[in-house]
Specification:
The protein has one domain (7-398): Methylamine Dehydrogenase, Chain H (7 Propeller), CATH 2.130.10. The protein is mainly beta. The longest helix is centred in the N-terminal third of the chain and has 10 residues, at 93-102. 5% of the residues lie in helices and 50% in strands.
Length: 403
Amino acid sequence: MIKLTSRRAALVLAGGAVALVGGMLPAQAATTGWRSVAKVSVNGKETLLTGVDAVAKNDAWAVGGAATSKGTKPVGVIEHWTGKSWKRVTLPAGVAKKWNADSGVAFPVVGASSASNVWAFSENFTSAKGSDGYLRLSGRKWTVGTLPGTSIASGNLVFITAARVISSKDVWVFGGKLKASASSESFTPYAAQYNGRKWTSKSVPGNGAVVDVSEISAGNMWAAIGTPALFAAEGDTLASTPSVDKWNGKAWAAAPVQPTSLPTGATLDSILAEGGNVWIGGGASNSKGGTSEFAAELTGSTWTAATTLPATASATDYALTSMAPDGQGGIWAAAGGVATTKVRIWHLTGGVWTSSTPAFGSAQRTLFQLSAVPGTSSVWGVGVIARGSRDDGLIALVGPTPR
């Protein structure tokens, strides 16, 4: 069994597929609490969804990949919420052929600003001449392209972790550039911006990778710097210093106030900027030999002490991997684990974190990313769920079905 930690780990390992054991997907619950609303399957393949972005009540996008258990090259999967149902996106033949030739791997992340401005990003580690790429929907036309500074032949092995699509003339993609030698491995932050005409690499300070990004506006974005979950999960020792960066509309710089009171062995995995506050989440060493999820908040110019969420510590490794506003002043958060595929879902209301039990049934399942539906109290989540002897992509929801 491959151990899952987050959408990052799941995606990179997707070529080997995910082997889970569990029951069938339950029928949708009548409640507005967390429940499964759709499964995504590809005939003969193990399927998982790793990224989601909601633009409106009737417009959301989910991406991931599918591969056989024999470790064949994964293929990308794209799903679109229309306000009535989730529909599989079929690319035009010419675009699909070019994409499969140039990249042909699963999509880690997706971003959109409207139903006619959608971007999905991919890593290409299957060829010595590969580069990370993107798939773009502009109007009704799909196109493909490559990202700057990601050529493997030039020694630039970049892991994609996040995307932010603000408009058709302001698109961002983030990740970490791996520097490896016979004795050590390390990451440096990676970022690139599209201005409507071309992509340009951007300098981001920090010791590690950009693991997550959240934006308040085009001139106010926040980034968490840490170790991508795949490497943390595998026990690799990489030089990385948890930190927070801020975009001021012109340049990325270290945030004026850094979270200095993080727990021992802390790694950052998620960040959420909402209104005047910023939250960070991650995992930290616990007394049982595993890691436990934690969160901290920046209010004004002060970080609260990182709070370990009230779950029982165990040898299992958990980290707060994704956060989204609940539309009512609180936060929903998902926490993934290494030795388990039972996701933990947390809800912050009134300054207190409480656990939430999803109506997912007994099947093993996890969520990799959350995305709030603008103007509502609904949040989409995507991941993977066991379906007998195979795995399917999972689409979950909390709150009223957005239409």
